[in-house]
Amino acid sequence: MIVVLGATGNVGRPLVRALAAAGEQVTAVSRGSSKVSLPKGVRHRQADVTAPESLRPVLDGADALFLHDAGGSAHPFSPRDILDVAKSGGVARIVLLSSQGIATRPHSSSHGSVGRSREDTVRQSGMDWTILRPGGFTSNAYAWAESIRARRTVAAPFGDVGLTTIDPADIAEVAAAALREERHAGQVYELTGPALTTPRQRAEVIGDALGEPIKFIEQTRDEARAQMMQFMPEIVVETTLDILGEPNPAEQRISHDVERVLGRAPRTFADWVQRHIAAFR
């Protein structure tokens, strides 16, 4: 049995589908309602990573666990307590979805130190472990969906700064491989897309898929900060803006780890848009 925490998230959903398609027994765990769409044969359980004891009946008898970093410091939880519960339930393998920022922003309390502590806890757990460090998600473009639908506009800062965003489906497939195959034990995978793309270019790709032009409006840093502060802690906002505006060489480096694990190149941003274009119509 493989337990997927955060099973209704951008990575959790395709991960559950990938594991189910591979014939694995899967328990999908989320804090929300059990009325979620799941593949046939997948069971859903409600539990909360911030209350590790709620995971005990979920993890009892499981073989492997997928643990999300829960968005950095925005949702504090104790990985040590979760892993203690997992080990007592018989879990022998863990895959942690971490962040590229652990390596690229080691002195940031929101991206570096908190995440590093979680990674260290996983490494010291005594279980077989694999750590995934993705950069920005292609699915972050969902934040533009409302303005594209209503006004065919995109507002974003740093319009011509490129980053290597990755499709959450690729992260999910790498996670599925690591949960199922022993050869990934002890590995840290940096996960990126196949090329640098800028916000302006991503808006153009969505426009091309819609068959209509998208107007790009470049925000100032202050304008972007005010918008992001509505749903992110300030410390996370500042580091995120630093990455978006002044990425260091490591944050613009294209990794080949997706191809090493899956035997194919990672999907492009255009691939993601084609699969999710209905959200922008």
What does the model show?
By secondary structure, the protein is α/β, with parallel strands linked by helices. Helix content is 39%, strand content 16%. It has 12 helices and 9 strands. It has helices at residues 12-21, 56-59, 79-88, 101-104, 109-123, 145-151, 168-180, 199-210, 221-228, 234-245, 257-262, 269-276; strands at 2-5, 26-30, 43-46, 64-68, 93-97, 128-134, 153-157, 187-191, 215-219. The strands form 2 sheets. A 7-stranded parallel beta sheet has the order 3-2-1-4-5-6-8, sandwiched between helices. Helix 1 (12-21) packs across helix 7 (168-180) and helix 9 packs antiparallel against helix 10. It is globular, with a radius of gyration of 19 Å. The mean pLDDT is 93.
Quick structural summary:
This protein is of the alpha/beta class and 281 residues long.
- Mind summarizing the main beta sheet? 7 strands, parallel
User: Helical residue percent?
Assistant: 25-40%
Shape: globular
Strand order within the widest beta sheet:
3-2-1-4-5-6-8
What structural category do the secondary elements indicate?
alpha/beta
Could you give the count of β-strands? 9
Strand and helix order = EHEEHEHEHHEHEHEHEHHHH
Tell me the Rg in angstroms: 19 Å
Mean model confidence by pLDDT: 93
Q: What is the terminal-to-terminal distance?
A: 39 Å
Low-confidence stretches: none
* Residue share in β-strands: 15-25%
| Total helical segments | 12
